[in-house]
Amino acid sequence: MINLKFNIHMKIRILFVIIMLYVFCVKSSFGQDFTKFSISGGPIIGWYVPSMEDLNKELNKLGIPEMSKSGFLNVGGGGFLIIPGLSKFRLGGIGYGFSSETSAEFQNTIKTAKFSYSGAAISLEYFEKISKKFDVSFGGLIGYGTLGLNIAKYPKDYKNWNITPFVNDSLLSNQILINDYTKKILTLQPQISIGYDMLKFLYLKVSAGYCFSVSGKWKLNNVLEVNNIPSGIKADGFSFTLGIQAGLFVK
């Protein structure tokens, strides 16, 4: 299940505002010499493959199904501009995220787990044309985001509609347990890309890379620092994306 949080869209908007301010400042400085310029934006869809070994070991202890070892659908959006005066470089930004859920029903309870990531990144690439329509680029992304792990246990009868606990002036003995673990991470992702000028205003780019991450402590409910969470539960992994960019491309 895809879970694109509101803050992803806000980060994309902020990145585009920064890019547009940069464009207007540079255009004012270059004057008549501002002869090469491209700017674009659009959706990005991809496949993200983090290591799931440590997380799946913990899920096995809970008695619920493992999450996919082959990766998750990764969805977001972004864009780029060609830096005036440095026509072989592209500066860009993206926002993206993924999530996966698993659950199991027992005699009296339902256990669930959700693993997710949402973040944004800036990108810098060096590219070369290899034909009239195709180019190849080398570069990377530097990003910041939130990695999350939500583990919960519900009484099984909560699957049935029941407003009685809210009508009466009392509490039932049934207890819901929800542990929401999150941590902030910095990411670095070197990648290689192939681009295709499909139309005058449409550009396609396929990218492959590997994400490395540096993070702080896990926190429970964004407050309490938690120790001893398995070190293999992290965002590092292979990334494959397809970007569809629409915009203005001045050759």
State Rg. 22 Å
Quote the average pLDDT.
85
Shape: elongated
CATH topology: Porin
Number of domains: 1
**Binned strand content:** over 45%
Largest sheet: 8 strands, antiparallel, barrel
Task: Outline the structure in words.
The protein starts with 5 loop residues before the first helix and ends with a strand. The chain contains three helices and ten strands, in the order αβαββββαβββββ. 27% of the residues are buried. The longest helix has 25 residues, at 6-30. The chain has one domain (6-27, 35-249): Porin. The protein has 251 residues and is an alpha+beta fold. The protein has helices at residues 6-30, 53-62, 164-167, and strands spanning 38-50, 72-82, 89-105, 109-129, 134-155, 177-199, 202-215, 218-220, 224-226, 237-249. It is elongated, with a radius of gyration of 22 Å. 16% of the residues lie in helices and 56% in strands. Strand 3 (89-105) and strand 4 form a beta hairpin. The chain has an eight-stranded antiparallel barrel with strand order 1-2-3-4-5-6-7-10.
